[in-house]
Amino acid sequence: MIPARYEASRFPGKLMKTLGDAPVIVQTYRATLQTQLFDDVFVVTDSELIFDTIVAAGGKALMSRLDHQSGSDRIAEAVHDMDVDLIVNVQGDEPFAEKRSLEKLIASFNTDFKKEIDLASLMVKITDPKEIQNPNTVKVITDQRGLAIYFSRHAIPFSRDNSDETQFFKHKGVYAFRKQALLDFQKLEPQMLELSEKIECLRFLEHGRKIQMVETDVLGIEIDTPEDLEEAQKVWNSNKLS
User: Fold this and answer.
1) Which CATH superfamily is domain 1-92 in?
2) 1-92 and 98-180+187-222 share one CATH topology?
3) Residue 240 has what pLDDT?
4) How far is 19 from 62, CA to CA, in rounded Å?
5) Residue 120: closest CA among 232, 211, 230
């Protein structure tokens, strides 16, 4: 499931901006489909423009209500009556979604025999000081089992002594939910931390749920700003030439 909201607060209309030979949302749909990991792939949107664009490109799209507070809420509406076990949420601004990371994400459920994990998500190590301090980059810290402790737009953990041992991880906006966990998410009320940080997975932590973080070494590019789109275009052109 690829949630696609047209009116993104930081970069309105970004999903319909051109990347390569098609809009960002079409490239994300194609990349997700090409992994061949899923029984089906849908774009879930509140925009008739995005819906029509995906259908015209030969893809599958579903319309959702306008009033959802997060992409996960949007997907929960879409899957409510579907007979599915596991739902993977790939953000609409992830045109470089790739198979290896998604495979690791899905595999994290294979050893969860007691079904203790409500959802799993991806993280990647970052070392660039600018990205570590960038509020558009969501950071995550985990316990020794890889379960999320907290997500923040601030640099976490705070390195009091500027130690070289301190590691920082970026949260990549890709999730895998058990269906019931996703339906439960929609019923949970956003709390102070989520409303403050504007990070939807904090809703799970605030309600005592478990999030398994899965490390990947693929940084990719999430398109949050016009500058991100310019960088994505350079990478896209480079990949096509190589």
Assistant:
1) Spore Coat Polysaccharide Biosynthesis Protein SpsA; Chain A (3.90.550.10)
2) yes
3) 63
4) 22
5) 211
